[in-house]
Amino acid sequence: MICRNAASQDTGQYKFTVADAVIERLRPIREQFVALRKDERYLDDMLSAGGEKARETASANWREIRDAIGMRL
């Protein structure tokens, strides 16, 4: 469809056609992003959960590294 339409367009018109298609394709993602940005409680909860998970992973990795190099604390 877009190729048929593009055949009669000059470069400037084609750029607008492509831009409109990209904007429309990204619209749902942008709407979800905006909604999530408004929910500060959800963002705080996700950051806290992510931080806890990162600390657990880092702690396990650090123990494995210490054991591998023979470093005992």
Query: Which stretches of 5+ consecutive residues score pLDDT under 50?
Result: none
Mean pLDDT across the residues is 90
What percent of residues adopt helix (DSSP H or I)?
over 70%
* H-E string: HHH
Query: In angstroms, what is the radius of gyration?
Result: 25 Å
Cα-to-Cα separation, first versus last residue:
67 Å
How many helices in DSSP terms?
3
Strand content: under 5%
Shape: elongated
The structure class reads mainly alpha
Main sheet record: none
Strand count: 0
Number of structural units classed as domains: 2
List the helices and strands and how they pair.
Layout (H helix, E strand, L loop, with lengths): L1 H5 L4 H28 L1 H30 L4
Structure overview:
The protein has 73 residues and is mostly helical. The protein folds into two domains: 1-38, no CATH class; 40-73. 86% of the residues lie in helices and 0% in strands. It is built from three helices and no strands. The protein has helices spanning 2-6, 11-38, 40-69. The model has no long low-confidence stretch (mean pLDDT 90).
How is this structure best summarized?
By secondary structure, the chain is an all-alpha fold. It folds into 2 domains: 38 residues, no CATH class; 34 residues. The chain is built from 3 helices and no strands.
Give a quick set of tags describing it.
73 residues; mainly alpha; 3 helices; 86% helix; 0% strand; elongated
